[in-house]
Each structure stands twice: as C-alpha cells, then as structure tokens.
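WARN retry 2 of 3 for item q-0093 after timeout on previous attempt; input resubmitted unchanged.
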Amino acid sequence: MSLDNAQIKPHERLAAALAVDLDAVNVLIRERMASKHAPRIPEVTAHLVEAGGKRLRPMLTLAAARMCGYTGPYHVHLAATVEFIHTATLLHDDVVDESGQRRGRPTANLLWDNKSSILVGDYLFSRSFQLMVETGNMRVLGILANASATIAEGEVLQLTAAQNLSTNEAIYLQIVRGKTAALFSAATEVGGVIAGAPEEQVRALFDYGDALGISFQIVDDLLDYGGSDATGKNIGDDFRERKLTLPVIKAIACADDEERAFWKRTIEKGDQRDGDLDHALGLLAKHGTMEQTQLDAIDWTKRAQAALTILPASDFREMLHDLADYVVARIS
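OK item q-0093 returned
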C-alpha cells in the first residue's frame, strides 16, 4: 500500500528513506553510551536519547552523505557523533536553565541531579570525540571540534546577553549561530566531506545547515510565546527564564518609555508578577513582532533551500528542501 506523501511529515519521509542507516546509528549510540563502571551514565543518557526526539541532526548528516554518493560506513559514526554532542548540550542546558521538562518529560537534572547531568554530558562529549576520531578524517574532526567550541561560546554569550535590553538582532543572530546553527551546519558539512564531495557542494551543505538551524531556533522562540504546544515546553518559559529572544527584541526596539520600563523590570531585574506574561504577549501583539519574526524564519528557510540548488538532484535533495518548509510549518 502506498502512502500519500502529502500526509507524511518531511522528517518522517527522511527517516523512512534513511531507515537502515538510522538503525545502525541507534545501535552505535546504545553501544557507546554504555559504561562498565558507572551505570548512571546509560540511565541518564537513555532517558534523553530514547525520549522520542526526531534525530533531526544525525539525519542531516546521513542525508548529506547519501546525497553526495557516499557508500562507506563512517557517515554512521558521524551521525552518532552529532547526536551525542546534541544530547550533551541538552543535559547541560537543562542545568543552566533550571528546566523541569524536556520533550514533554521530566528533565534528567530533575530525576537525578545537576551533578549527574553535567558529568554525563561531559562523558557524551568525550564519546563524541572518540567516534569522530575513528573516521580517520582530520577535516571532519576539525569541523566537529570547532562546532563544539562554537556551541559553548554561543551559550556563554547568551548567558551575558539574554537579560540585557541592549541586546539587538545582530547579537541574537550571533547567539543562535552558536548555540543552534553551528551543529546543524556541521552535521550537513561533514556529510559532504566524508563523501568527498566537490568544495562548492560542501560549502552549499554548510550554508543549508546554517540557514536551517537559524530558522529552526527562530521558530522555537516563536513557539515559546504560543505558536504551538508541540515543543513539550510550557508557554512563556523563555519569558520566565528572562531570555531575550527575537519577538521580544523586536518589541523592545519599538517600545515607548512605559513599555521599556516593563521589559526592564521583568527581563533585566527579574521582578515578575501575576499577569506579566499576558502583558508581554499583548505588547508582542501590539507591535506585530510575532508576525515579523515569522517572516524572518521564512526568509532563512528560503536561504536554506537556495543553497541546495547546486547539489545533485535526488530524492534526498527534495526531502531536505521540504524539511526546510516543515521547520516554519510548525507554527500554527
């Protein structure tokens, strides 16, 4: 029986096309998250790795490699590497953000403790480097090592800029490129590198991942203010955590003195009271910043799709094109 592609989400079509490779990635992940001496490591890792995530980043690596004609085994190692780096950052992020929920489930730091989350995250980072070394490719090692450093840098920048009302869209973009887009672009770029793709195709894969990652994070920031509840987060978590994301940055840019005082009290000073979230939502609506932010996300999606045009025509290229559309289609 054939399935109607229009009813299947792009990431599900991609997963189906990569089913054999994804099975190999999952086997490798389970093997490498094991620990003879510290049983808490697989307990904590399994809680997050097997929590129903889409495996989007490893799929990008697998699809990029297949699209460029790769037939060897190491795209699986690189996909597992990308997933380990991603999982490690999630474990650390939940501690930093004092989060209680991830993918609709209690976070690891809530179920165990902060020490376990930090140390298991460190373990996964170490495992990721072991995996990438096994490919024997110094260039992919350099790309993923640089991405790991960029992610950490982006998180530290967010720490200092997130509650500062002078944070503008350029700084926001720098943060997003660090904490989110760096791993997307590394995931797609290493797929092309391991396949020995021509340099212009490797660059196009980087550009696709970079633009897709930026669009993905902008949409996540929109969803936090009520676009959808599919993220497993509570509406307004970013507001409560005093994070300056794009809808708020745009609202502050056109705020009058009274509105600016409100943002200063709630975001900079952290003095939040009953009704403040509703008032914040009202200000976003007043200035149309949710709609403006959505247009920014669509623009980055179009950039991602434009980058694909010089890559070999294939089903994978079409699925990556549709995936970019799906990122913004998550906004209801």
